[in-house]
């Protein structure tokens, strides 16, 4: 694979970035957070932080990818060399690759559950089932390592096959079919929810402006969501940016990605909660909403089995569009660094991540308790791996903002952004000061939730590491700036 491949169509990066951003979190986390934290008030805070944090870092990460035209790891190696900065900044690429690898390992397991429910819906197995039956079915799924491993394997193979086919025949062709189909399915489910559910209750839950319900935790959730929802700091955006046409506008594309990602989450929320409230059920967050509450709603509605099957195909498609973006950064690095063919690189990445995913599989059953992870960290292997990604991604995003804001010259940024001096000045101020401070605040605010000795250890490492890297960088560039 050439490291200078470019998407065939200028709009493909938008599809790729939206595909990476739109995942399971849009369908079960964002709508619930919105409803529980003041509705419109939460959306307002989210919109402000998307503008001040999400979009500036999205532009920065894309810019680093397009500037280097290489995988995140090799690209950061190239950029640190050409900008005479400390090689410590290469950690941006490694943090992104590590995040992608770890996330894929457990994301594939959870996304695999949708295979189970697609089959159950389309075969009518859940038609007329009561709450106890559906809840017991979900518990039985989690209790079966064999079933979880089967679905985990099928999902990760499907994702790997798309990436292994290449940038154009695989990822680009897949996204150009998959993303429009997902939007059509989402609108179909919304129409079904309006016709058969309680659309008014869903709209009130999501959009009633209630500032009293927006606590400090709600603010932090909105700020964190603005970062995590755009897939920042995990290498995907930088990897996709390396294939982005030089003519495509960074600013317009970043704004479009943020808008479409948010719109999908809102439409999904209206569709899902119309069904939930229409069936007289209580909204909840996380897997329970997707795999227990929604099947209960579909079981009670006309044509519920068919529409439920279509909905879980939507879930699968959204998950695959995200998972291929997790494979690409590491696969591209293996191709560039070790001269592997793309199928070899993808196979290496997928097999390793699949093997790590087995720890998540057994975290729900055989080793739910009493493992070395519980003894050392007070949590399951799955929870510990997820914790690591919640550290690596914000740290990577923080460093991306600082590097793009301070290392890239005015001429480089203007060449990439091709924008007015006013917007350039706003972007540079946001990416140098506001975005790093916001990401650091959300990140460090979450550390007290970590049990035991991990609190001082991780806190000290993060703070010392960030200050050391920043000090090295600012010394290197004090004269230039």
UniProtKB/TrEMBL annotation:
Mind telling me what this protein is named?
Transporter
User: Which compartments does it reside in?
Assistant: Membrane
- Database matches in PANTHER family: TRANSPORTER (PTHR42948)
Query: Which InterPro entries does this chain map to?
Result: Na/ntran_symport (IPR000175), SNS_sf (IPR037272), YocR/YhdH-like (IPR047218)
Native species: Billgrantia campisalis
Establish whether keyword Lyase is in the entry. no
> What is the taxonomic lineage of the source species?
Bacteria, Pseudomonadati, Pseudomonadota, Gammaproteobacteria, Oceanospirillales
Q: Which residues cross the membrane?
A: 12-30, 42-64, 92-115, 148-167, 179-207, 219-243, 255-281, 301-334, 346-367, 387-408, 429-447, 453-474
**Annotated keywords:** Membrane, Symport, Transmembrane, Transmembrane helix, Transport
| Protein family according to the UniProt entry | Belongs to the sodium:neurotransmitter symporter (SNF) (TC 2.A.22) family.
Q: How does it sit in the membrane?
A: Multi-pass membrane protein
